[in-house]
Design goal:
By secondary structure, this protein is of the alpha/beta class. It folds into two domains: about 5-60 and about 320-480, Aspartate Aminotransferase, domain 1, CATH 3.90.1150; about 65-320, Type I PLP-dependent aspartate aminotransferase-like (Major domain) (Aspartate Aminotransferase, domain 2), CATH 3.40.640.10. About 40% of the residues lie in helices and about 10% in strands. The chain has 19 helices and 14 strands. The chain has a five-stranded mixed β-sheet, with helices on both faces. A three-stranded antiparallel β-sheet has the order 9-12-11. Strand 3 (about 125-130), helix 5 and strand 4 (about 145-150) form a beta-alpha-beta unit. Helix 1 runs antiparallel to helix 16, helix 2 runs antiparallel to helix 12 and helix 3 runs parallel beside helix 12 (about 305-315). The longest helix is centred in the last third of the chain and has 16 residues, at about 420-435. It is globular, with a radius of gyration of 22 Å. The relative contact order is 0.16. The protein binds pyridoxal-5'-phosphate. Pyridoxal-5'-phosphate (PLP) binds near residues 60, 109, 225 and 226. Pyridoxal-5'-phosphate binds near residues 107, 132, 194 and 265.
Length: about 475
């Protein structure tokens, strides 16, 4: 993909769109941010958006829509059954994946519920490159377990491996031998692996994995939520894809996939989701669950306006200048942080910039949640809201002990086309200051710990009142600045 060259001999990301609608932001003083953290149990999920300056929690449902998407919402056909909008979206998906059947759902995890309810039995093992929180929860809810068979590069925080999302083919063969095909209903491929830093999986790896699975009559399920970033990196980093268009890459993935599902909160930049399958047999196996959990088969819990906008968003996903926006901004964000010595995950991927909490605050043990503490500290000193992706996002071992996460990350997501370069510079400035004062950050401990998906609603408190000390230092250094 051609990048624009500059006279001043620097390369920087350039927006290939202009902003025509804006939303005013609030930046409240650090004392008010401390109050918000106290109220929200030092969990960034529990902050109110009005207390947040730059919301980098997630790209889920927060990407900017295009004018064409907005316009499409006006022609939505509102009807419970048989809406024209549904058939337009179905047609777009048939073109996009070349799969004939589409089951609409209200979001990505709903697809996981339907797929796992249909195919996962107690004792089953589901191999995958890496789990996603909701995926793992649904597999376990149905009595299965997740087997992650990533390569040795996957969890290395500094690497120049272009495809850390790849599956280790030997581990896959080994697992099939050990577990037996009868206990492996499907293998799951996650495009743009969310939890290890938006890292892509190579097309060549996908094809090799699918060949092994199909030789053993194991289905391939592809989670295409982060497809846009993944195909951008396939095109940019993979020799094999140099001469393929973005759509040809999508089709090569779809060709070896038995069940494709996605969260349209990411793919298509709207809110919704869906499952696409090539055969009527697979469609029939799952279709009865849609009216039960989602809504009638022609809306699946989505509003028709979102469905119209999704169809346009999917078309736009095949535009190189659309899919390169996220990764380019993330690369620049990462570069600026590294210039300040801030440890991040390299190479940068999609989704967001991932700060490595283990290296940022090595004095905080996994049991005291370094990623959670760092996410809280970043919000406190900047109003920037990131997300903990570390031990708090894991589940405790059956004996109640902590299960330390492979990596302790604070994800600073960059929803597509939302933030400007000066806002990113502000975030870099504050995080660089925090890095200089990192010794002040200590760990967190739970005061209220939910049993399932505790990262969403759990409440914690800072050990040794470190937040007060950090706030005091901020005031000393920044005076009465916001
Ligand atoms: C977000 C996400 C999901 C879940 O989708 P929701 O719409 O949030 O329910 C599943 N898989 C991946 C890879 C995701 O990023």
């Amino acid at each position: 993909m051609s990048k624009i060259k500059f006279f001043l001999n620097e390369s920087m990301p350039l927006e290939m769109h202009k902003v025509r609608v804006v939303q005013k932001l609030n930046l409240i003083p650090i004392e008010a941010r401390k109050e918000a953290l106290d109220q929200g149990g030092y969990n960034t999920f529990l902050l109110k958006n009005r207390d947040v300056f730059l919301d980098m929690l997630t790209d889920s449902g927060t990407n900017a829509m295009s004018d064409r998407q907005m316009a499409s919402m006006m022609v939505a056909d509102d009807s419970y059954a048989g809406s024209e909008t549904f058939y337009r979206l179905e047609k777009t998906l048939q073109f996009f994946f070349q799969m004939k059947y589409f089951l609409p759902t209200h979001q990505g995890r709903a697809c996981e519920n339907i797929i796992c309810k249909t195919f996962v039995k107690p004792g089953d093992v589901i191999p995958m490159n890496y789990h996603f929180t909701t995926t793992k929860a649904h597999i376990e809810l149905n009595g299965g377990t997740v087997a992650e068979i990533f390569t040795d590069e996957a969890l290395k925080v500094t690497s120049d491996c272009p495809f850390k999302g790849n599956i280790d083919l030997n581990k896959l063969q080994q697992l099939i031998k050990e577990v037996g095909v009868e206990h492996i209903p499907f293998l799951r491929i996650e495009l743009g692996t969310n939890l290890i830093g938006g890292q892509p999986i190579a097309l060549e790896n996908i094809l090799a994995v699918a060949k092994i699975c199909h030789d053993h009559k194991i289905m391939v399920v592809t989670d295409a939520s982060l497809l846009a970033d993944n195909i951008h990196f396939n095109k940019e980093r993979e020799e094999f894809c140099k001469n393929l268009s973005l759509h040809e890459i999508v089709l090569k993935i779809a060709e070896v996939t038995d069940i494709m599902y996605f969260s349209a909160r990411k793919l298509g930049c709207v809110r919704g989701g869906g499952i696409c399958v090539p055969t009527v047999e697979l469609f029939d196996k799952m279709k009865d669950l849609i009216p039960l959990y989602e809504g009638f088969l022609t809306y699946g819990g989505m509003s028709v306006r979102e469905m119209e906008a999704m169809a346009v968003g999917l078309e736009e996903t095949l535009d190189p200048e659309m899919v390169n926006q996220g990764p380019q901004f993330i690369a620049e964000f990462g570069k600026k942080l590294m210039e300040q010595g801030v440890p991040i995950i390299t190479p940068t991927g999609g989704l967001g910039c991932h700060v490595d909490a283990r290296r940022f605050i090595p004095h905080v043990k996994s049991e005291e949640y370094p990623a959670g503490a760092l996410a809280a500290a970043i919000y406190l000193i900047s109003g920037v809201r990131g997300m903990e992706r570390g031990t708090i996002s894991e589940t405790r071992n059956p004996d109640g002990s902590e299960h330390p996460a492979g990596v302790e990350l604070v994800r600073l997501a960059l929803p597509r086309r939302v933030f400007t370069m000066s806002q990113i510079s502000y975030a870099v400035d504050r995080i660089a200051w925090l890095f200089q004062n990192r010794d002040l950050i200590k760990g967190l401990m739970f005061i209220d710990e939910p049993k399932v998906l505790r990262f969403f609603l759990g409440r914690l408190t800072p050990i040794d009142h470190w937040a007060d000390k950090l706030m005091k230092k901020f005031r000393e250094d920044f005076g009465d600045s916001l």
